[in-house]
Amino acid sequence: MNPELVRSLIKRFVSGAEGERGQIIVLSAAVLTLLLVFSAMAIDIGIWLHTRTKLQADADAMALAGAQKLCAKKECDEDAIELARIYGPKNGVSDPEIKSVDVGVDCDGNTSANHDWITVRTQRTVKTFLANLVGILHEDIEACATARKAEVAGGTGVVPFGIEDDCIADAAFGEEYTIKYDSASGGASEICDQYGGNFALLAIDTSGGGAPCGDPPDTLEELKLKQAICFGANRFLCAKSASNCTGQIDDDGCASFGFPQDDQSCTETGNVSAIKEAIDWRLTNTVDECDEWEEVVYIPDGGLKPECNPWLNAGSKRVIMIPVIDRLFEGSPGRKIVDVVSFAIFYLEGLQNCSSSGPGGGNCEVVGKFITSSLTASYEALDDLDENSTLTVVVLTH
Questions:
Q1: Choice between 11 and 317, residue whose per-residue pLDDT is larger
Q2: pTM value surpassing 0.85
Q3: pLDDT per residue over 361-381, tens digit each?
Q4: Is residue 131 a contact partner of residue 92, using CB atoms and an 8 Å limit?
Q5: Which of 40, 150, 334, 344 is 20–30 Å from 66 (CA)?
Q6: Percent of the chain with pLDDT over 90
Q7: Greater confidence, 283 or 203?
Q8: Rounded Cα distance, 102 and 106, in Å
Q9: How far apart are CA 106 and CA 114, in angstroms?
Q10: Is residue 85 classed as helix, strand or coil in its secondary structure?
Q11: Peptide bond between residue 300 and the one before it cis (omega within 30 degrees of 0)
């Protein structure tokens, strides 16, 4: 082969390769730049998302804290706002990062004149890590949370001890009440005492189904009563004033009184052994960390600690929800239908003055302490907050 031709071919090949190499270098530089941009954005976007999640959780906590102070009156608004702001630094949100705290408006701009909403808006400026290479120096992350305080309007799990509305009208935190009287209590003239064979015990469980508690054997009525005390009644019960609650009519009836509506209950004569066994079961099966009054509530101003909230910790069995009822100590003697006015939370102190004798097993008292509680867990049926609400729930709405 002609050497000159070979040399010429080699030259062309080398020249062409060098040209392609230049194109590859340019293309590689462009690809690396894009990879750098995408990596920068991926890292920074990850940081932004983490910050957004944390900031939202902080705003939620602030709103839930502030909502505890709402009372359906303007007079409580400032206290609610102040408490929400106090919980900012507790959750890592600095004062400059709190854009606003408002009562009566939600994150979408909707308004409520009932003083039952509180909204917290926060903003945190996050410097970029790699995105500044492409001119993005920082990102403003925002979060908004709205909490509502509402009245518990109804649900299941109610324990069948009814306290008269006149008894709890001026209820004070930590005040001890008798939530089930014995037959030896004072006369009918006492506002909060028994009348005509009624001892504040209610027939609100409808089936007697579920796990046993206490010692068998039981009659069906004893079983229903014990299980309602141990686990809460299976019947969905509403408060009479509730506008957003559809409960269950008592299909067992009440002898000659007919069938109680979803906001009513029959009084129950009860059985002293069933009551003793069920209360003992609750006391025995309460977890150690929720077994004392001081462990269950905040001292000195009241309120249920979340760790002993029975809707969050099933082992907190000393804390019970009971119906507040009307007309228990009025009208005709004997068993009758009463209205459920609202609900209240009590710490179960235990039994006193019990004996196995007495008509209908009435010789046994159950005592408890009133908890001025705003639960931080949703319940089954809620209604608008009222300044006289005895049991409220704080829930996030946004």
A1: 317
A2: no
A3: 446 788 899 887 767 666 778
A4: no
A5: 344
A6: 30
A7: 283
A8: 8
A9: 13
A10: helix
A11: yes
Q: Which of 299, 294, 290 is nearest to 320 (CA)?
A: 290
Q: Helix H segments across the chain? A: 3-67, 77-90, 165-168, 220-231, 272-284, 293-296
Whole-angstrom Cα distance, residue 82 to residue 92? 16
C-alpha 11 chain-centroid distance: 82
**For residue 177, what is the enclosing H or E element?**
strand 176-180
Mean pLDDT in residue range 39-44: 68
Q: What does the pLDDT read at residue 238?
A: 92
C-alpha distances out from residue 336 to 169, 181, 333, Å: 22, 17, 8
Beta bridge partners of 382: 152
Residue 200's nearest CA partner among 291, 297, 323 is: 323
- Of 296, 316, 347, nearest to 177 (Cα)? 347
- Phi first, then psi, for residue 159 (nearest 5°) are -90, 135
> Whole-angstrom Cα distance, residue 368 to residue 162?
12
Q: Cα–Cα–Cα angle for 103, 105, 110, nearest 5°? A: 165
Residue 162 DSSP code: P
Output the six-digit token pair for 280: 């003992």
14 alpha-carbon distance from chain centroid: 77
What is the mean pLDDT of the segment spanning 102-117?
94
The Cα-based distances of 193 to 148, 225, 349, 352 in angstroms read 36, 21, 18, 15
- Could you tell me the pLDDT band of residue 4, with boundaries at 50, 70 and 90? low
Quick check: 142 and 382 in contact, CB under 8 A? Answer: no
Distance of alpha carbon 162 from the chain centroid: 22
Say which DSSP state 154 is in: E
Mean residue pLDDT across the chain: 80
Instruction: Kindly give the interhelix angle for 3-67 and 77-90, rounded to the nearest 10 degrees.
Output: 140
The pLDDT score that the predictor gives to residue 333 is 64
Say what the pLDDT of residue 360 is: 41
Q: What is the pLDDT of residue 74?
A: 94
| Residue 25 scores a pLDDT above 70 | no
Tokens of 344: 């209240």
pLDDT of residue 318: 96
